[in-house]
Amino acid sequence: MGNTEWGFSTEQVHAGIRPDGGHGARITPVYLSNGFLFDDFDQARERFAGESEGYYYTRYGNPTIAAVERKLAGLEHGVDALAVASGQAALTIAFLTLLKQGDHVVSARSIYEGTRGLLREDFARFGITATFATDPNDAEALAAAFQPNTKAVFIETIPNPRNDVPDLELVTRVAHEHGVPVIVDNTLGTPFHIRPIEHGADLVVHSTSKFLSGHGSAIGGAIVDSGSKYLTDAFADGHTVNDETFTQKARSLAGRFGPTLSPFNAFLLQHGIETLSLRMREQSGNALKVAQWLESRPEVASIDYSGLDSSPYHANAERYLENGYGAVFAFTLRGGLPAAEALINGVTLWSRMTHLGDVRSLILHPASTTHIHLTAAELAENGIEPGTIRLSVGIEDVSDLIADLEQALVAD
Ligand SMILES: Cc1ncc(COP(=O)(O)O)c(C=O)c1O
């Protein structure tokens, strides 16, 4: 897919690129076609049987989507990838390809709230349960969360929004000792900062709506397959029909469940990825400066940014993250809810939005938005306080970003 000897910036432009057949287009065009013609009776049968390369129906594959799948597999140093309609669809398909009714997942507690809800509420309705390990960096506590029916472990490289970066190699070691694969959500890390497969992860999941696109105009998701034996072993209990790879199995499941990525969004994603390193370098650099500035402010009680020396997760961040520490983090104001409300209402440059990884800087109050359905005890367990604010730092001049936060803090 890629060329592991290339530098990241070369890879992001050239990985997975194949000259488009026919007209020699430099960029794979947008194939907005639901179906593809068969030359004859035999070719139709071969396509459905998976005996010949080529496309038949966009829900199962499309040249524009395939181009971005090859690029993502290349960038994450995986063997294959599947792109779907959103990050949530990618997580759903990754889990459902591996799991069946009666199975169990061990997940880190500190993860994106949408994924926690999926595991805790939606999958539970279908007989798939989850245990949330409080500290995935504690090997004994993590091992204690396993059950005989545990079939997968789930973590995020840079947890949204707490930044409690896990010890990835410890987690993969414990999971593999139990014979189960590790699914890693690398949405906030991006392959520019970390390639989880190089640390033992079996599957990498992305919300491509975020940093990979960067422009904030196309929702999408992807699963990158490492080809590891823990994935194929997961099918050994008979819930697959033959010796398909993980991605083949996931592609047919996604085809039936139906969360197809629009070829147009795949095209926009491909353009986003080509400038990932340029944006991430700026955004993560800006995030560090904003976090350092917040640390100097009397209004701020605490900051959850793994790039700060004061973070308890700085050692893990130093060990696993390259070229910076990401651009999404949370901090908590001493003044609680009124101070949070005043800051959110007072900014004029930061966008009040529930999105992240955009070139624009975004600000959100988790307790009244993404985490609004949690009880007070659950909020406390997840480190979300009334004064907690989440930032996604963009590419603007950092002095402007800080000035805007400062005028809103002082106005309070
Ligand atoms: C870490 C993480 N994973 C997955 C998702 C879901 O992605 P999407 O919005 O593309 O469905 C999000 C969304 O914020 C996220 O932050």
β-sheet strand percentage: 5-15%
From N to C, what is the helix and strand string? HHHEHEHEHEHEHEEHHHHEHEHEEHEH
Number of strands: 12
Q: Domain count, please report it.
A: 2
How would you describe the shape?
Answer: globular
Modified residues (N6-(pyridoxal phosphate)lysine): 210
Protein name: homocysteine desulfhydrase
GO molecular function, one term: O-acetylhomoserine aminocarboxypropyltransferase activity
EC number: 4.4.1.2
Structure commentary:
Its cofactor is pyridoxal 5'-phosphate. The modification N6-(pyridoxal phosphate)lysine is found at residue 210. Its EC number is 4.4.1.2. Keywords: Pyridoxal phosphate, Transferase. This is homocysteine desulfhydrase. By secondary structure, the protein is α/β, with parallel strands linked by helices. It has two domains: 8-273, Aspartate Aminotransferase, domain 2; 276-411, Aspartate Aminotransferase, domain 1 (Alpha-Beta Complex), CATH 3.90.1150.10. It has 16 helices and twelve strands. The protein has a seven-stranded mixed β-sheet, sandwiched between helices. The chain has a five-stranded mixed β-sheet with strand order 8-9-12-11-10. Strand 5, helix 8 and strand 6 form a beta-alpha-beta unit. Helix 14 (336-346) packs across helix 16 (398-411). The radius of gyration is 21 Å and the shape is globular. It starts with 7 loop residues before the first helix and ends with a helix. The mean pLDDT is 94. Pyridoxal-5'-phosphate is lined by residues 86-88, 112, 114-115, 156, 160, 185, 187-188, 207, 209, 219, 221, 356.
